[in-house]
């Protein structure tokens, strides 16, 4: 460390004297404590005692040897612990292969660091920094290059060329964006319709067997899909995403129903969309005594007997109700599709289709 | 003709339900009776009078203070008339009853009675009115279809009890317990009864065979530890994140401190 | 004799190779330039290295996984070895993930290595950012590198999320569903973006393949590019160092790259890899076989994202009820937009902080000596407030687990979090600032009066005093070596007008520096030393009297 730079540092921090930066709100104390310079180097045991040095060498060698043994064990384990139908074989394969590789890696790592710490020189060295800002002459030269390029090309002078170039550059990425248009179709009115139609029977999820009203005892909950939804069909998951329904029977006395929806239930049996009106998780946690429905993702809570109104959590809208009736055979059927889009809100969900 | 048809129906569980339901409608009983009806079987007959008397004695000294001398219920506890043997067995054999504090829900505690005592109390309560019987081997044998069991478990149970059966939160301090230490009988009883806030999964919704499938799947989870190593409670990304920070990054930081320290 | 011979031979080989390489790529200049470059040593300087190395582990383990994974959402019936799923309908993506797990030797190990190192990558990057923030390493000339690092952190989250969704199990599927719900909540274009992303209605048959392209190509490529920029700037700027004797803004103190740093940093890669491997051998991560293939109807209790997305999920959970509004016939989902906007604003504040602080201090100098966090009390307090804000959102994502594990009510936990989100950052700010100022005063006290030695002496006139030992010159310098900023007044500009910007800056400078504690100067220290000397004389006298 040269004497000169020390002095510069105490007055103001700048290595290149030609450019002094503004210190802003920093108050520089003229009588600040002087920097005593780097602390003297402390000698290690391995530096002064050959015995310690020898020990350190042995330790490093031992660690590198351990690494070799570990890697060799990993190779062995790959063949010695094959996997089959029994899951404990998977566990053993994972464990022993992993432990072997771990030793192979840690042996090298710890050995190398130990080597560096005990046997390589550990006296700290200072190196001068140079200001990041280029020296004035280089900056001047750079500006000269730019000016020359400007002059030779006429970039500033030939306005029309420049402006049309800007225009061209602004437009050329657009085809690159529009080309992604076929990533997906226009949403259309798909979000407004589900697989429920007038007369669709309510069926058990996942096996699709139809449900009779008589089978639903008070306090029970059925997870429901529309009858005929089949895992083999192309849009099974898309349809199920919208059509999943929760079917619950409560004491009809407890049910609070608006006049408009009075006919939507059957003797205390109500069917509600299972898809949360917040961001679409299945709201499937039904509490029998409180009649609350809880979404496990963000804890929105709906009151099932009061039209599935939101009573807690980030959701805002009640879960849509599926109007149901019972046919002559006693099976539950949908009166119609849902009367509003199911699931998370979107901008034009209330617009007339 | 009609009789034949009825006989045919009686052989299938669904048919049994239809018949019972129809019958009950005629009699005009309420929905609670329907609830009980779905998996009732005559119970009192199989128990001796001595056992029922013994159960009554136990009931009077241990349960009557909350549930009433005749199990008619008080302000502190519901009526037990018609809850069935299964309910007594479930509540008492898991230690939930006798209840201790009045928290949001009854806790699992050390069991207070012997199996004989529990059976006697169950017999007594069962003798008061018909109700769900203790599920037999058709529910609990554990030799069902494990894949169907897993599928049904995820659709009907996982939202509360977690996909790995580790339990989960309900509202206002209530929770769905973990199932890793529950016996087949307890699980079957819980599905049939819908204790506390759990909904009822009657035999028309999930057939006895399907209940057995679910139990088979849960027993697989209970007996098979994870192939990947310690499961971290099976609670998913939260405990994984904690281990990543405290274990993985913590260990590495400990090493960096060793690495940055000067050797002596 | 033979020893020297082999040594000569080895030298010969090394020299020969070096000559061969240099004549073809001219590497000698590079080595001369960088071979003895100085790197300061401190444990906290290795956090970025941890992130870098876990990224390398991600590339290695990820490449292995691509050889077996099939990113297709076509429906198949599983017929592998995992009994509880045999015969189940699932996507090829999930089936191939199960096959990697149960039918490829070392497959489960590599899955776990990949996932654990992903969690570590973002964690280490985050902690590295905090180190840089709290030590003021983002100041000139490193503001741009801070932004590059910020971009890397965001890319890390993106890489993580795209990967999390690939196995197409119930957990990741519900995660995607939440994303879909959030996108649909965006005004005007929400449903369009949703169908574009999913190739039609959710979940469609495209999303896994698309996320796969992003996960294995675009995102890692961007990470590599920004990583390169990050490291080039690091070399250009040279590393910062902590304040201390001999450490200046004009030098860098540490160890040379070759051999010490190469051995340490090289060895450290193996250590990081080894520790990841260790954890991956013993701890399950993401047991996809428990969740089953994605089905929109079921859901598991405890559905959570990986930790780095947790704060966004928490923000969604903490939104109050009934934030949805109607504008005419249109629905404005503020319950989704508000958390989204708050998160984006938070990220923007993080990215832009260096520029703001620079505007306040007006300090245009280069800073290479790091601040001790206490010496920038308001910055440290702002950082603590930010960390607290993030932490509450983060904890918000596990309200259900907090409730069940600590036997509390889910509802109360959530409401507590909502209140904490506003109150706790303010508390954290005030407490941290006070702690910093106290520590600064303590430092000043020690600089002026020395350390309490624990020696109690009774003076002849009966007074008891504790003898203070003056700090040695190296410790002393560490205590006083920091910048002393003072608030400014709004000054008129050249035209004699006080601009709004000047007023704002004056207010901000008061906010930052009005309580600042100046470092002890030599004059003060000497004045106190004189006083201390007098006491010492009295003490000596007292001791001698006692001896007599």
Based on CA atoms alone, the radius of gyration of chain A comes out at 38 Å
Q: So what's the overall shape of chain A? A: extended
Count of runs of 4 or more consecutive helical residues of chain A: 8
CATH class of the domain at 195-334 in chain A equals: Mainly Beta
Care to count the β-strands of chain B?
A: 2
What is the residue-averaged pLDDT of chain B?
Answer: 83
Give the total of beta strands of chain A: 12
Shape of chain B: elongated
Order of adjacent strands in the largest pleated sheet of chain B: 1-2
Known CATH architecture of the largest domain in chain B: Orthogonal Bundle
CATH fold assignment of the largest domain in chain B: Cytochrome Bc1 Complex, Chain D, domain 2
Explain what you see:
The complex is a heterotrimer of chains A (353), B (264) and C (548). With 353 residues, chain A is α+β, with helices and mostly antiparallel strands. Chain A has helices at residues 3-11, 45-48, 50-80, 87-119, 136-153, 159-171, 173-178, 236-243; strands at residues 26-27, 125-128, 202-204, 221-226, 245-249, 269-273, 285-287, 292-294, 301-303, 309-312, 324-326, 332-334. The relative contact order of chain A is 0.08. With 264 residues, chain B is mainly alpha-helical. Chain B has three domains: 1-37, no CATH class; 42-134, Cytochrome c-like domain (Cytochrome Bc1 Complex, Chain D, domain 2); 137-223, Cytochrome Bc1 Complex, Chain D, domain 2 (Orthogonal Bundle). Chain B is built from 13 helices and two strands, in the order ααααααααααββααα. In chain C, strand 6 and strand 7 form a beta hairpin. The chains are: A alpha+beta (353), B mainly alpha (264), C mainly alpha (548). Chains in contact: A-B, A-C, B-C. Chains A and C meet through helix 1, strand 1, helix 4, strand 2 and helix 8 of A and helix 4, helix 5, helix 7, helix 8 and helix 9 of C. Strand 1 of chain A pairs antiparallel with strand 11 (484-485) of chain C.
Explain briefly what this protein structure is:
The complex is a heterotrimer of chains A (353), B (264) and C (548). Chain A is α+β, with helices and mostly antiparallel strands.
List its traits.
heterotrimer, B: mainly alpha, Cytochrome Bc1 Complex, Chain D, domain 2, two-stranded antiparallel ribbon, C: 548 residues, mainly alpha, Cytochrome Bc1 Complex, Chain C, two-stranded antiparallel sheet, 11 strands, globular
């Amino acid at each position: 460390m040269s004497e000169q730079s020390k002095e510069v540092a105490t007055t103001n921090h700048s290595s290149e004297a030609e450019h002094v930066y503004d210190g802003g709100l920093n108050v520089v104390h003229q009588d600040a404590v002087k920097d005593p310079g780097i602390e003297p180097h402390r000698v290690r045991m391995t530096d002064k005692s050959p015995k310690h040095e020898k020990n350190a060498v042995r330790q490093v060698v031992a660690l590198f040897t351990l690494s070799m043994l570990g890697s060799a064990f990993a190779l062995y384990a790959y063949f010695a612990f094959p996997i089959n139908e029994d899951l404990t074989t998977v566990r053993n394969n994972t464990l022993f292969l992993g432990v072997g590789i771990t030793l192979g890696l840690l042996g090298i790592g710890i050995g190398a660091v130990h080597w560096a710490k005990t046997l390589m020189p550990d006296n700290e060295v200072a190196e001068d920094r140079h200001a990041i800002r280029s020296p004035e002459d280089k900056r001047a030269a750079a500006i000269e290059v730019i000016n020359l390029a400007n002059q030779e090309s006429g970039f500033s002078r030939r306005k029309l060329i420049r402006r049309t170039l800007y225009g061209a550059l602004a437009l050329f990425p657009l085809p690159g964006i529009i080309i992604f248009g076929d990533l997906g179709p226009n949403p259309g009115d798909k979000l407004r319709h589900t697989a429920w139609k007038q007369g669709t029977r309510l069926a058990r999820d996942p096996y699709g067997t139809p449900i009779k009203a008589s089978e639903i005892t008070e306090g029970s909950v059925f997870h429901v899909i529309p009858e005929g939804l089949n895992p083999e069909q192309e849009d099974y998951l898309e349809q199920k995403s919208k059509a999943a329904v929760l079917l619950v029977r409560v004491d009809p006395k407890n049910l609070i129903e608006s006049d408009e929806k009075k006919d939507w239930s059957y003797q205390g049996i109500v069917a509600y969309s299972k898809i949360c009106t917040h961001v679409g998780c299945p709201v499937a946690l039904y509490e029998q005594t409180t009649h609350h429905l809880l979404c496990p993702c963000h804890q929105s809570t709906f009151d099932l007997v009061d039209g599935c109104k939101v009573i807690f959590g980030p959701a805002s809208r009640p879960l849509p109700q599926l109007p149901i009736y019972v046919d002559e055979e006693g099976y539950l059927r949908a009166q119609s599709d849902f009367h509003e889009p199911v699931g998370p809100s979107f901008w034009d969900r209330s617009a007339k289709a | 003709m009609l009789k034949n048809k009825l006989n045919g129906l009686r052989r299938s569980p669904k048919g049994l339900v239809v018949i019972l339901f129809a019958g009950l409608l005629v009699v005009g009983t309420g929905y609670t009776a329907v609830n009980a009806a779905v998996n009732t079987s005559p119970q009192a007959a199989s128990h001796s009078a001595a056992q029922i008397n013994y159960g009554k004695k136990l009931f009077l000294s241990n349960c009557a203070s909350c549930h009433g001398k005749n199990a008619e219920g008080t302000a502190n506890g519901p009526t037990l008339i018609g809850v069935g043997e299964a309910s007594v067995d479930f509540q008492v054999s898991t230690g939930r009853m006798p209840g201790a504090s009045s928290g949001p829900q009854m806790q699992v505690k050390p069991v207070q009675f012997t199996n004989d005592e529990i059976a006697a109390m169950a017999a007594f309560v069962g003798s008061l009115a018909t109700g769900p019987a203790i599920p037999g081997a058709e529910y609990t044998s554990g030799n069902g279809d494990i894949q169907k069991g897993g599928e049904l478990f995820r659709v009907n149970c996982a939202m509360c009890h977690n996909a790995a059966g580790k339990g989960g939160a309900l509202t206002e301090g209530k929770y769905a317990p973990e199932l890793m230490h529950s016996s087949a009988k307890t699980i079957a009883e819980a599905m049939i009864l819908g204790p506390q806030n759990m909904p009822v999964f009657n035999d028309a919704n999930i057939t006895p065979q399907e209940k057995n499938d679910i139990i088979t799947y849960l027993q697989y989870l209970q007996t098979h530890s994870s192939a990947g190593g310690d499961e971290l409670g099976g609670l998913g990304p939260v405990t994984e994140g904690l281990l990543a920070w405290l274990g993985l990054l913590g260990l590495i930081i400990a090493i960096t401190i060793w690495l940055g320290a000067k050797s002596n | 004799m033979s020893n020297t011979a082999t040594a000569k031979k080895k030298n010969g080989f090394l020299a020969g190779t070096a000559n061969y390489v240099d004549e073809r790529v001219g590497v000698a200049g590079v080595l001369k330039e960088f071979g003895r470059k100085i790197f300061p040593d401190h444990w906290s300087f290795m956090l970025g290295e941890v992130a870098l190395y876990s990224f390398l582990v991600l590339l290695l383990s990820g490449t292995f996984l691509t050889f077996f994974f099939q990113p297709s959402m076509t429906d198949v019936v599983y017929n592998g070895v995992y009994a509880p799923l045999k015969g189940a309908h699932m996507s090829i993506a999930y089936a191939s993930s199960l096959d990697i797990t149960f039918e490829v030797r070392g497959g489960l190990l590599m899955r776990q290595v990949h996932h654990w190192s992903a969690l570590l990558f973002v964690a280490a990057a985050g902690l590295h950012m905090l180190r840089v923030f709290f030590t003021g390493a983002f100041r000139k000339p490193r503001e741009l590198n801070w932004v590059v690092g910020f971009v890397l952190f965001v890319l890390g989250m993106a890489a993580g999320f795209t990967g999390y969704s690939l196995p197409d199990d119930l957990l990741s599927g519900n995660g995607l569903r939440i994303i879909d719900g959030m996108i649909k909540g965006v005004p005007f274009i929400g449903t369009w973006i949703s169908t574009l992303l999913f190739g039609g209605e959710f979940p469609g048959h495209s999303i896994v393949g698309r996320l796969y392209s992003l996960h294995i190509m675009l995102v890692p490529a961007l990470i590599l590019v920004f990583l390169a920029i990050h490291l080039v700037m690091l070399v250009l700027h040279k590393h910062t160092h902590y304040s201390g004797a001999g450490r200046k803004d004009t030098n860098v103190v540490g160890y040379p790259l070759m051999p010490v740093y190469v051995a340490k940093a090289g060895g450290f890669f193996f250590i990081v890899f080894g520790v990841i491997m260790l954890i991956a051998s013993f701890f399950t991560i993401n047991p996809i076989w428990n969740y089953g293939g994605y089905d929109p109807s079921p859901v598991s209790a405890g559905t959570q994202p990986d930790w780095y997305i947790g704060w966004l999920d928490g923000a969604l959970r903490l939104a109050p009820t009934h934030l949805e509004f109607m504008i005419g016939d249109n629905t404005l989902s503020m319950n989704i937009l508000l958390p989204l906007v708050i998160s984006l604003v938070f990220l923007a504040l993080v990215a832009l902080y260096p520029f703001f602080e620079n505007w306040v201090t007006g300090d245009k100098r280069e800073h290479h000596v790091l601040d001790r966090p206490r010496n920038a009390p308001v910055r440290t307090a702002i950082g603590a407030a930010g960390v607290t804000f993030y932490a509450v959102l983060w904890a918000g994502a596990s309200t259900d687990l907090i409730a069940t594990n600590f036997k509390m009510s889910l509802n109360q936990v959530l409401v507590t979090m909502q209140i904490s989100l506003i109150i706790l950052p303010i508390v954290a700010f005030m407490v941290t600032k006070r702690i910093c100022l106290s520590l600064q005063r303590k430092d000043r006290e020690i600089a002026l009066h020395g350390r309490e030695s624990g020696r109690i002496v009774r003076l002849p006139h009966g007074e008891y005093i504790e003898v203070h030992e003056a700090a040695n010159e190296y410790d002393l310098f560490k205590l006083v070596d920091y910048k002393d900023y003072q608030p400014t007044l709004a000054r008129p500009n050249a035209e004699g007008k006080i601009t709004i910007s000047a007023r704002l800056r004056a207010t901000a400078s008061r906010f930052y520096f009005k309580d600042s504690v100046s470092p002890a100067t030599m004059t003060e220290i000497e004045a106190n030393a004189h006083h201390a000397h007098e006491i010492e004389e009295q003490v000596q006298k007292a001791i001698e009297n006692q001896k007599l």
